[in-house]
Amino acid sequence: AADTVRNNANEYNALLNGDAADAAAVKAEQVEDSKTVESLGKELKAMAPEYEGCVAEDAQGLDAATVKLNEQADWYGTHEKSLSKAVRAVAESKAAKRLDDAKTNLTAKLDEASKLLADSNGKVADNATRDALSNAIDAANGLKDGNDPAKIDGARKTVEDAINGVNASVQAKTDADAQAAAAAAAAAQAQAQAQSTYNGGSSYSGGAYRRTEGSTSGSNTYRGTTSGGSGPAAASAPKPNLNGSYGCGNSCTGKDDGYYHH
C-alpha cells in the first residue's frame, strides 16, 4: 500500500508541476470554452493528503495504517486522472480557439484581397503585383477549411504581403501620374507665356503730344497746339487796326487827326 501511495503521488505531482502548471497560465479569453479554465482551477485547489508512511506498533495499528494508505493512494490516483482530464480540456479548447481565430482572420483578409484585386485593375504601375495577389488568394482558399492553424496563418501572411505589394504599386502609379500632370501643366503655362510675349506691343502717350500709327506711307502725324509762336498760321491771321479804321485799303491817309479819311 505504501508503494502504491508513493507511485500515485509521484505521478500526480509530476502532472501538477508540469502540464497542469502550463495550462494554469492559459486565460479564459484564450480558449473557446471558458468553463475548461474554471474546471482546471477547481482541480488545482484540491488539497492532497499528507503521506506519513506506514507506522504501526501492532496488528491493529497496521490494519488502520493500511486503510489510510489505500485511501491516500485512491485520492492521488483519482485526482491524477481528473487533473489530467482538466488539463487536456484546456489544451483542446485553446487549440480550437486558435484554429477558429486563424480561419476568421484569413476570411477577413481574403475579403479585403478580393476587393483590392477588383479595384486595382488598371491602377497599378506593375500588373505583376496583381497576379501575385490573385495566386495568393487561390492558395489561401485551398487552406482556409483545413485544421492546421499554422498553415492557415501562413496563407494569411502571404495574402497580406501580396496586398501590400498591390497597394505600393497603386501608390507608385498615382505618384507618377501626378508628376506627369504637373509637368504637362508647367509646359502649357510656359507655352502660353511665350505666346503672350510674341503677340504683345507697346504704346506711348503724353500730355503735350500724341504719336499715332496707321498711315499707309509709314509716316507719323504730329498734332500739337502752340501759343505766342510764329509760323504760317500766325502770318496768315489778320492783324487788328490800331488806329480804329477798318478796311480803308490804299486810300487811307494815315493822318492822326481824329477823323476817318478815305
Structure characterization notes:
By secondary structure, this protein is mainly α. The chain has a domain at 2-174. Helix content is 62%, strand content 0%. It contains 7 helices and no strands. It has helices at residues 2-17, 19-24, 35-44, 59-119, 128-141, 149-199, 232-236. Helix 3 packs antiparallel against helix 4 (59-119) and helix 4 (59-119) runs antiparallel to helix 5 (128-141). The protein is rod-shaped, with a radius of gyration of 58 Å.
**Mean pLDDT level:** 81
Beta fraction: under 5%
**How far is it from the N-terminal to the C-terminal residue, by CA?**
186 Å
What structural class do the secondary elements suggest? mainly alpha
Helix-strand topology string: HHHHHHH
Count all strands and give the number: 0
Low-confidence stretches: 208-236, 241-252
CA radius of gyration is 58 Å
Helical stretch count? Answer: 7
Shape: rod-shaped
Share of helix, binned = 55-70%
Main beta sheet: strand number and arrangement?
A: none
